[in-house]
Every structure is written in C-alpha cells, then in structure tokens.
Write a structure and sequence with these properties.
This protein has helices at 6-9, 59-66, 102-114, 132-143, 161-166, 193-213, 219-226, 243-247, 257-276, and strands spanning 78-88, 99-101, 120-130, 149-157, 170-173, 178-181, 238-241, 253-254. It is globular. It has 280 residues and is of the alpha/beta class. The protein has a domain at 76-89 and 97-274: 2-enoyl-CoA Hydratase, Chain A, domain 1, CATH 3.90.226.10. It is 35% helix and 17% strand. Helix 3 runs parallel beside helix 4 (132-143). It has a 6-stranded parallel β-sheet with strand order 2-1-3-4-5-8, with helices on both faces. The protein has 9 helices and 8 strands.
Length: 280
C-alpha cells in the first residue's frame, strides 16, 4: 500500500512553505553591509529589532479612507480652526450627523495659546448650531486668547454659531452666507415648566450678553431679531444673509478667505509692532 503524504495525513496543512519576500515597508533581517549574513552579536553588527517604516497613503487611498485629498504642507504662523456641522455637547449625536465635538476644540485652543509658532487664529464656520453650553464654552475660549483671531462665516453660522462668530477680534461673512437668530429651545419631555422656563431665560441672557459685548449690535436690537415673528416658518426668529448681518452690527465685514487672511496678517503685524515699542 502506498504511503499517504503528510498533506493527506493532516488535512488543511500544505506540505511546503514557499519563500516569500518581505514587504517593502519592513526592513530585512540581514545587515546591508554583510549580505547573506544574519545580524548577530558575535559578528560585530548586533541584530536589531525589525522596524516597520510608515508610508504616506496615496491620493486614491486618502480619498477612499479619509475622504480628503493630500493637502500641501505649508509652514505658517496662522492656525485654521474649522467648526462645521452640529456642535456636539454633553450628548453624543447619531453617527450620520456631521459634528464638531467641543472636547476636540478646547484642547486645540489651549495648544494655540501656548504655541510660540502660532501667531494668529482663523476660525471658519459652517454650522447649524447645537449645544448651547458647548458653543458658549468655545466662544469664551476664543475671546480669551491673547493672540489675534479672525472668524469667517461660510455657508451658515446659525444659532449658537452666532456667539462663536462674534467671539473673534474681527469677523467676516461671505456674501451668500446666512445666520439664524432665534430664542433658545429644547425638545423632549419637560418636567416643571416654570423652573424650566426660568432656566432657559437665564441661558438666553448669557447668549444675548455675550453677543452684545463682542459686536456692535445692542441688546434690544438682538432680542428683537430673536423674537421677530413671520420670517421663519412655524417658529420665531430672523435669518440674516451676508450684508444684512453687517448692517445690523453683528459682523464686521463682508468678505471671503483672502480678506480674512489679509486682515489676520495685518493684526499680527500690529501686535508685533506694539511689542517692539519701548516703554517710556
């Protein structure tokens, strides 16, 4: 009777293992100066651990996995901070929502304040609003920075995005961008209506006071925009588009990215000149 091969004796085990070349990203086990000889302490070139060298993803992989193309690396003294989608607060929003998490933004702002290389901050907004306390926290952080800040509203800076937009030292809005001003609302079951109303009223005062302190609009005018009826379907409030936000004193100027960057560079130079002036 013929002997059964090892492959038949152990089903699933292939009788041989072909030599496979190592991947290009993994260093070989032999020393480049001694081809064919392993790295060994006795030979005078100690064996080193294998290191995997990272490789930058190609354009197609970046688009497929990250949804972005390669951005050219430019050393700049300006940091760009984007606030898009819905501002997420204490509750995690569904995964299909485009969100900006405040726990991601706050550490960035602290790092910007501490960095010596960053001299100015450009804030780009295209947000529908979101959590009131998270938005106010971001706005307070921005206004407390010692470095020049410029904000630009592209697309929309609605609801709690309004305080974030005016928190910068100088604010711009695109000609077609819009800002929705409305009273604070909540959804879901409300227990204790008088107490809840008092809480919302105090929260609303915080928003009004912040906006009026950091823009040219007055508190009565801002409240009038909040409670104006007839402009929003099934709601109260006001939608300001581009130039209207400037005319109301909410935003400083109509403009795009080039104007925002130019203004920020000008503010950085002015700050440098003030530091260079000797104290008498």
């Amino acid at each position: 009777m013929a002997r059964i091969s090892s492959y038949d004796e152990e089903p699933g085990v292939f009788p041989y293992s072909p030599d496979i070349d190592p991947e290009p990203s993994v260093e070989p086990d032999y020393h480049p100066d001694y081809p064919g000889e392993p790295r060994h302490p006795d030979v005078g070139h100690p064996r080193e651990p294998r290191r995997v060298q990272g490789r930058q993803k190609g354009g197609v992989d970046s688009i497929k996995e990250l949804g972005a193309t390669q951005v050219p690396e430019v050393r700049s003294n300006i940091h760009s901070l984007t606030i898009v989608g819905q501002i997420e607060g204490h509750l995690v929003l569904p995964p299909q929502n485009k969100t900006t998490k405040y726990e991601h933004i706050i550490p960035q702002l602290v790092a910007i304040e501490q960095s010596d290389e960053i001299e100015g901050l450009l804030i780009i907004l295209n947000t529908v609003g979101g959590d009131v306390e998270a938005g106010l926290a971001i706005a307070e952080m921005i206004t407390s920075l010692s470095k020049p800040t410029v904000s630009i509203v592209l697309g929309g800076g609605h609801s709690i995005g309004v305080p974030i937009a005016v928190a910068a030292d100088y604010s711009l809005i695109a000609d077609t961008a819009s800002m929705t001003i409305h009273p604070i609302r909540l959804n879901g079951l409300v227990i204790g209506v008088p107490q809840t109303y008092e809480y919302l009223d105090k929260m609303q005062d915080r928003v009004v006071n912040f906006v009026t302190r950091h823009s040219r609009i007055t508190a009565p005018e801002f409240r009038e925009l909040m409670f104006r009826t007839g402009e929003l379907a099934r709601d109260i409030g006001t939608v300001l588009i581009g130039k209207e936000a400037v005319e109301k004193g909410l935003i400083d100027e109509v403009g795009g990215v080039s104007k925002a960057v130019a203004k920020l560079k000008q503010m950085i130079e002015e700050r440098k000149n003030k530091k260079e002036v000797p104290v008498q």
